[in-house]
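Sequence only, no structure available. Ideas?
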Amino acid sequence: MQASTATDRQLRAAARGQAGRLAGAAYWFAMALGATGLLMAINQTFSLRFLGFDPLGNAFLYYLIGIFLAASFLVYPLSNRHKDHVPWYDWALAAAAIASTVYLALHALTIIEQGWDFRAPIAATLTSALLLLLVLEGVRRCGGVPLLIVALVFGSYPLYAGKMPGFLWGTAYDLGGTIRAHVMGVESIIGIPMQVVAQLVIGFVVFGAALAVTGGGEFFMRFAVALMGRTRGGPAKVAVISSAIMGSVSGSVISNVLTTGAFTIPTMKKAGYPPHYAAAIEACASTGGTLMPPVMGAVAFIMASFLAVPYADIMVAAFLPALLFYVVLLFQVDNYAARSGLMGMEEHEIPRVMETLRDGWPYLFSLAMLTYMLLFMRIEAYAPYYATLVLVVISMFKRAHRLNLSRLLGLLHELTSSVSNLVAILAGIGLVVGGLSYTGVAGAFSRELLLYAGGSVPLMLAAGAVTSFVLGMGMTVSACYIFLSILLAPALVAAGLDPIASHLFILYWGMMSYITPPVALAAITAAGLAGSDPWKTGLYAMRLGSVLFLLPFFFVLNPALILHGKLPTILMAAITAVFAMWLLASAVESYLYRVGTITWPVRLVLFAAAMVLMYPGLYTDLTGAGLTLLVYLLNRLKPAWCASSPPAVRVPR
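Reply:
I predicted one. Tokens follow.
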């Protein structure tokens, strides 16, 4: 498989100390930083007190920020001119990051006892200023200039909050006070986002990396091929299934596109899918992986912390909406294949299901074990480490996937690059959180939004959708979610909406930018693999992922879709939602089972039927079912009114 071959090449490169722009001393130092950060996280999580090392909570956060911020200066270049080497000043920035955070960590107890976030010695203030500048550079490198601008505007808000009009007025700070509050206070750089990374996310990154380097990615791809390869349009369904599984573990959209897409996109093109359509399918499927439990990415853990609920509650609530997204994707690719006469994969390319399961059961077992520990044992902090340990032990009995030196280095490289990226971005987003929290503007903004909306839930949802979508274009999903969870989510909850549904609403709309032009990062990445036009790919990805625009409104208005409520209500909502997804896919792809390619009026009727089915209520369900039956009845009586052509006949490749 191409994906497996690419992974093997990456592992061999890692073993030689050649991964990305890292080589030689820079590579080994970055790996040492990653290993140190991992050991420190394990020591803190399990309270091992290794060699008597047992730092305070804020000291531990400073150490982790220093380690992974330093790594970010080695892994991510200042500009494209330096993508092939690490210049001397990146070494200097890495050293400054370590030195400044070690100083703060060594004075962690004093910071708390003497309130250094309000008044501190000049050395502490200058050190804090240095770390603040380093954080801003880390944000620029890992999050881009738009995110840097957001961090600067809101991070500096305490300086001019006292001069702002109306509800934008807030408590003012001088320059020194702003610097100290951001660096030594508990609501900014070392606030909830960074605490979540330190306590939870590192473990899940380790599990995802271990799954990949021991052959899990190859197994999940083979498993998807075994399940769906023989069906019409099989390669596209393989892309949907494999990206859902891998994305649910990795939580990364772009890496999902690059790994699974390396195999699925060429296979889809070979089966007859146009390049832009193949790339759009992979982009949508990879984007949805970040919404699919059990892992979902860092943002889900941040959401659990903001809501003060167990992560298992987020998993349960997110499951059905994510499943509905993949159901409609499968319906769409099947309809396209039926309309276009596309066949499945060649028989010799399809492994047997049972043989695949016999070879890959350790991956399913470790994933099931992780899910069980999250849902039933509720040990979020320990679960990924236990699951990783089980996976590694089992893999030692399989020669092909044994965790040897090259795979261990590959794991460390993945850990270092992923966590350093998260730490750099979330430290910068901490400035936004701190700026809004310290001035008190966040609460005032929510109250003002409620006032202007006049209690109108649809108006607030529309405003939230547009704001999330626009901010998602310039921010990472985590950054967009954190920003809006402070400003917008409290207003939605105060209006009487379900808290988890309100936060998921923001997350879904923040994800849109991955598949929607002009940004469409997932679509552009997939277009590069497919050799298709990025803009055309983005438009098709937006069409294929159109359910993402609608689902958030439905589960906010109908909490049964996030599995909140009585069992009969949830079952009815799930059944009617799946039926609605089928109708929506038929309308989008202009193909209806037993009818064929359908006319525009019928597509509009099916779209209307899908919409009323998604809205809760007996009368809406009966209306949707009635419209669907009407279409089939008209097709029997007046076929020319419904079908523009009969179902396509499969053609040989």
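The two ends are 21 Å apart (CA to CA).
Hope that gets you unstuck.
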